[in-house]
Write a structure and sequence with these properties.
Blueprint: H1 3-26, H2 30-45, E1 49-56, E2 61-68, E3 79-81, H3 85-93, E4 97-99, E5 121-129, E6 132-141, H4 149-200, H5 207-231, E7 235-237, H6 238-251, E8 259-265, E9 269-271, H7 272-293, E10 300-308, E11 312-319, H8 330-333, H9 336-348, E12 352-357, E13 363-370
Parallel strand pairs: 8-10
Antiparallel strand pairs: 1-2, 1-6, 2-3, 4-5, 5-6, 7-9, 10-11, 11-13, 12-13
Helix pairs in contact: 1-2, 1-4, 2-4, 4-5, 5-6, 5-7, 6-7, 7-9
Length: about 375
């Protein structure tokens, strides 16, 4: 190989390593990262297949997690007992395997239906993190040939990067699981508090009303978790959350007539617990507007507006209904819903809450809470 070709090859290898390193640093999706690693490794090393197996401790086996060269249908299905085959042997013994004619090696094991029968040579390496084997990777070629020391060194470096990606994903998963447990615990405690408050005021409502209000409160908290699951990160779009809450409430309405709940204004991402509190607050204010603001006409519009300032978020819920009764005092005349709003806003979030009749008719509730 002449100097120009060698330089071109080295440049391509460095570019691949940089791309893999960047993908690991920015990784949000482990499957996509492993796919990129196998694809770029196959390209830069000039091999016909590159595959990554993850160790399943519960079953004591290696599971195919990503591959460029094997049949895609085998991802997540093809398994190897630890110690079986050349790849399993590498994982079992924590050593590098590089064989020119894999089928003649006594350790060779054919995985039926994987599509690897067309390959001749094989190189396999363990994936290790914190001194423990967490998987294995292999590279295969259709022709029978020896792997050079340079190829072995490059593949070893890439498998170290792959192990880093796997360890990072494990740590992130552990942190996410812990955070989920924390959120669920907090929200279950909130629901229990709501039910206790509801029982204390049970004489004022029918069992059907109590059940309906409780369902909407639980759905408001559930909406936070649904958005977190869909968006795959730890913060929630508050505007999307309020739109979902509005849809939940209007879908479950038993009143006749047309009611439109419009969510307008600024959007921002909020931590899960703050979003859960605001979900409950918005639920109570929208329900209050429906039950006390628009009755008896059973139709009209409720406007939910979000406004972000430098250090605060203002939530306004306004209707064009009949307004507050004469002499209404928030501290003395509130029901359970408004009591819940005031408690969440002032005590939990350190904000302010006001409720007043508008000069042009209807009622306006304003919540202002600090945000970073």
């Amino acid at each position: 190989m002449n100097t120009a070709s060698l330089l071109q090859q080295k440049t391509a290898q460095l570019a691949a390593v940089r791309e893999i390193s960047r993908a690991i640093a920015e990784a949000q999706d482990l499957d996509a990262t492993l796919d990129l690693i196998t694809r770029r490794t196959a390209e830069v090393m000039g091999v016909d297949s590159c595959s990554i197996y993850l160790y399943n401790k519960a079953e004591d086996e290696l599971v195919l997690a990503a591959s460029t060269g094997l049949r895609p249908s085998g991802i997540g299905r093809v398994t190897l007992s630890k110690g079986t085959g050349l790849t399993g042997w590498a994982a079992e013994h924590g050593e590098i395997v590089a064989v020119a004619n894999a089928k003649r090696d006594p350790r060779f094991y054919r995985i039926i239906g994987s599509g690897e029968s067309r390959f001749g040579s094989l190189m396999a390496m363990p994936l290790t993190a914190r001194g423990k084997v967490i998987g294995a990777a292999n590279a295969q070629t259709a022709d029978i040939r020896q792997f050079s020391d340079e190829e072995i060194e490059l593949f070893s470096f890439i498998t170290d990067l792959a192990a880093t990606a796997l360890e990072k994903a494990r740590l992130v998963h552990a942190a996410v699981v812990q955070e989920i447990h924390h959120r669920v615990k907090n929200n279950l405690q909130t629901i229990a508090m709501l039910l206790r408050l509801q029982v204390a005021q049970a004489d004022a409502l029918t069992p059907e009303d109590i059940l309906h209000e409780t369902i909407n409160r639980v759905l408001s908290i559930a909406a936070v978790h649904e958005i977190l699951a869909q968006e795959h990160h730890s913060q929630v779009s508050i505007k999307r959350l309020l739109q979902q809450i509005a849809n939940n409430i209007t879908t479950g309405m038993t009143m006749t007539g047309q009611v439109n709940v419009a969510v307008i204004g600024d959007d921002l991402l909020l931590p899960a617990q703050l979003a859960a509190n605001l979900a409950l607050i918005a639920n109570e204010l929208i329900q209050n507007a429906l039950e006390h603001g628009l009755v008896p006409q059973h139709s009209g519009q409720i406007r939910v507006k979000l406004k972000r300032s430098d250090m605060a978020l203002t939530l306004t819920v306004a209707d064009k209904g009949r307004g507050l009764p004469p002499g209404f005092e928030l501290d003395s005349d509130q029901g359970l819903g408004l009591e819940l709003v005031q408690t969440l806003v002032e005590e939990d979030l350190g904000g302010t809450f006001s409720l007043a009749s508008k000069s042009d008719g209807g009622t306006e509730a304003v919540v202002c809470v600090p945000v970073l």
